[in-house]
């Protein structure tokens, strides 16, 4: 079973601060996704990274896929209260001999941004 | 523009009772999934389906059953509910199965408590 370790589990910061969330695994993933989830709702996809070393930016959010495709990070610049939520990473890997890929989720990081 | 719709939103069951969580999607997606989300544990795949009439077990299938008679509907059945099944359940769908750059569309979840 592939495991994704997310850190930190909780993050409480003031508006305007920067933060980084990490997602690590011992397995190689074909791609990695980041989702954001608000209370009472399902996760919503933010970005997919595919290539080792890839960096994607979404406004104040920067996503990076490690060179070996075993880790990823999410960096938020100048956090705002609207960034508050649960951030989940999810890795796509293909088990040998099977036709279908599998999606493995990390435990999630609960981010609270105080005004 | 409904997407993935889950019912009910909340439910309390007594130990040993049974119930069906409903899920329907209007995006003509072939692939559908059931996840459970427990605090600090991310999302765990219960069952998934790659098309009408085809289902398969995920990571945590024990105590659950599914069926897929139509492309739109993917109900999850709990037989003999146990306290360990207290969780938030999410249904999701996708155009393809966990392919690179594929995304999951999630419903808003069902919060289930078994007392």
Question: Short description, anyone?
Answer:
The complex is a heterodimer of chains A (about 120) and B (about 120). By secondary structure, chain A is mainly β. Chain A has no helices and eleven strands.
Descriptive report:
- The complex is a heterodimer of chains A (115) and B (115).
- Helices cover 0% and strands 55% of the residues of chain A.
- Chain A contains no helices and 11 strands.
- In chain A, strands 2, 4, 5, 9, 10 and 11 form a 6-stranded mixed beta sheet that branches.
- The radius of gyration of chain A is 14 Å and the shape is globular.
- In chain A, 35% of the residues are buried.
- Helix content of chain B is 0%, strand content 49%.
- Chain B contains no helices and 11 strands.
- In chain B, strands 2, 4, 5, 6, 9, 10 and 11 form a 7-stranded mixed beta sheet that branches. Chain B has a 4-stranded antiparallel beta sheet with strand order 1-3-8-7, with no helix packed on it.
- In chain B, a hairpin with a 2-residue loop joins strand 5 (43-51) and strand 6 (54-57).
- The mean pLDDT of chain B is 92.
- Chains A and B meet through strand 5, strand 9 and strand 10 of A and strand 5 of B.
Q: Which topology of chain B does CATH recognise?
A: Immunoglobulin-like
CATH architecture of chain A: Sandwich
Look at the structure and name the CATH superfamily of chain A: Immunoglobulins
Q: Name the CATH class of chain B.
A: Mainly Beta
Strand segment count of chain A: 11
Following the backbone from N to C, one meets helices and strands of chain B in this order, namely: EEEEEEEEEEE
Counting structural domains of chain A, the number is: 1
Q: Helical segment tally of chain A?
A: 0
Q: CATH superfamily of chain B, please? A: Immunoglobulins
Number of strands of chain B: 11
Biggest interface, residues from each chain: A-B, 26 and 23 residues
Biggest sheet record of chain A: 6 strands, mixed
Mean of all residue-level pLDDT scores of chain A = 90
Rg over C-alpha atoms of chain B, rounded to the nearest angstrom? 13 Å
Output mean pLDDT of chain B: 92
The general outline of chain A is globular
Oligomer: heterodimer
The CATH architecture term of chain B is: Sandwich
- CATH class identity of chain A: Mainly Beta
